[in-house]
Write a structure and sequence with these properties.
By secondary structure, the protein is of the alpha/beta class. It has a single domain (7-138), classed as 3-Layer(aba) Sandwich (Rossmann fold). The chain contains 6 helices and 5 strands. It has helices spanning 15-29, 39-48, 65-73, 88-98, 110-118, 129-137, and strands at residues 7-11, 32-36, 53-57, 80-85, 103-106. A 5-stranded parallel beta sheet has the order 2-1-3-4-5, sandwiched between helices. It is globular and about 30 Å long.
């Protein structure tokens, strides 16, 4: 049985970095990737279409990252949310990770992002609080 690659939405305010992320994802996971710089546009796209994963920087110029995560989690079929950042995400969005609404990944380690997305197959995850906590923690092989 073949697994369909995930549909990924990349939200990043740096055009060069978002293009690099898109190329990395499409080359290594063969996924369909869309890009936006706007948090409000990302929410519109998430409501209008199906995305399995939202990869976002820890900053969007037009929407507080916490609001983005909460509003994404409230969607009928929310995607997995991976927040890329260095030191600030733990203090800014750590509580959302603890609730199982997102995972914080190191921006400078793209291999971790690829592993985290790949570990999400087949993209049908439970919305129970326990399942969200497991998603937030990740597994040891995701972090290698």
């Amino acid at each position: 049985m073949t697994t369909t690659p995930p549909a990924v939405l990349v939200l990043h305010n740096d055009e060069r970095e978002s293009a690099e992320l898109q190329a990395l994802l499409e080359r290594n996971i063969a996924c369909k990737t869309s890009i936006t710089w706007s948090g409000l546009e990302a929410l519109r796209l998430l409501k209008a279409g199906h995305f399995d994963v939202l990869v976002t920087d820890d900053y969007a110029p037009d929407l507080y990252i916490g609001d983005l995560i909460e509003r994404t989690a409230a969607l009928p079929s929310p995607p997995q949310v991976f927040v890329l950042g260095e030191d600030s995400p733990a203090s800014v969005v750590g509580r959302y990770q603890n609730l199982g609404l997102c995972r914080i990944l190191e921006k400078q380690r793209p291999r971790i992002l690829l592993q985290a997305i790949s570990a999400g197959f087949p993209w049908k995850r439970s919305r129970t609080p326990a399942a969200r906590k497991d998603f937030a923690k990740g597994s040891p092989q995701d972090l290698g």
